[in-house]
Write a structure and sequence with these properties.
Length: 312
């Protein structure tokens, strides 16, 4: 029951995040919103250093002479998770949303479970069965339909979609590569430390954007909507939700956890229609149904031993 409630909260916050980002982009340049979001998530994560180390994995498991090597390994793990899950995923998502619609962005992010499945298969964390292969084909067809529809528009829309694809790939690497560390470390501590790592990596860009906005006088023109979007995206959509994501990763396989992505298009598209007045074309609707059907096929394979033959 706790997993269900956590996933429901995650889906709601991330669905609303598309709308909040669109509103924030009215007052802030895309790179500024993205970098400010990540730095905010890092700042609110700083109290992690005041917490006692938690979880079985945080207990000292190595000899004294091996502690330095262990610290370097932990730093490397936190750094690459911060890059994939924070900089690549959240950064490209925010910038890409500036050049595409809510429905397009949500549908592309919904393809993340496909990337997760492929990476999980490569690392031998999950089997690739015939049912999953069919699901991948359906979801790819849906994504292609969305892409063809967007291709008829300005080139900026295509670039926005491509950035969102990179965001989905980042989420996939973050999920798959985080499976083993989250089994060793406290989910709270690990998620907060990756937020800090992402903030450190993007801080030069954030400083550059801040100084640029100050020089042009745009900084003083940013109102409640702009800063509210930064806080919502940095605190709720990043710091809080990624802790829940890591916590759930302890109890779910990467591909099953990735299934939350395919519920986002429904909420995000409806919210975009109601709150922003963004139209939903027939091709986008058909593409969305294909993506949802495909990911549903991937994620609802029988538990335990599967009757399907694993594909070579």
């Amino acid at each position: 029951m706790s997993i269900f409630l956590a996933m429901a909260f995650l889906i709601f916050v991330w669905s609303l995040n598309y709308i909040v980002a669109k509103i924030g982009l009215r007052e802030l340049p895309a790179l500024a919103l993205a970098s400010f979001r990540l730095v905010t998530a890092g700042i609110v994560s700083l109290p992690v250093f005041c917490f006692p180390k938690m979880g079985k994995g945080d207990r000292i498991k190595v000899k004294v002479e091996e502690s330095q090597k262990s610290k370097l390994r932990a730093l490397w793990t936190i750094s690459y998770l911060g890059f994939f899950g924070v900089v690549l995923n959240q950064g490209c998502y925010t910038v890409g949303l500036n050049y595409t619609s809510v429905s397009h962005s949500a549908l592309i992010i919904a393809c993340a479970p496909i990337f997760i499945l492929l990476f999980s298969r490569a690392l031998r964390l999950e089997a690739l069965t015939g049912r999953k292969a069919i699901g991948m084909a359906l979801a790819f067809a849906g994504a292609a339909a969305v892409g063809v529809e967007q291709a008829g528009r300005l080139g900026a829309g295509v670039s926005g979609d491509l950035l969102t694809v990179l965001a989905g790939i980042g989420l996939a690497f973050y999920t798959v590569l985080g499976k083993r560390p989250v089994a060793e470390y406290s989910p709270l501590r690990l998620s907060l430390l990756t937020n800090i790592a992402g903030a450190v990596l993007v801080s030069p860009l954030a400083v550059w954007e801040f100084l640029g906005l100050t020089r042009t006088g745009q900084l003083s023109a940013i109102g409640l909507e702009g800063w509210g979007a930064v806080i919502y995206m940095g605190v709720l959509a990043s710091a809080v939700c990624y802790f829940i994501y890591f916590w759930a990763l302890r109890y779910m396989t990467p591909a099953r956890l990735g299934a939350v992505s395919y519920l986002q298009p429904i909420g995000a598209t409806l919210l975009g229609l109601v709150l922003l007045g963004e139209p939903v074309t027939r091709r986008v609707a058909i593409g969305g149904l294909l993506i949802i059907a495909g990911v549903y096929a991937i994620e609802t394979h029988p538990r335990g031993p599967e009757p399907e033959q694993e594909l070579a």
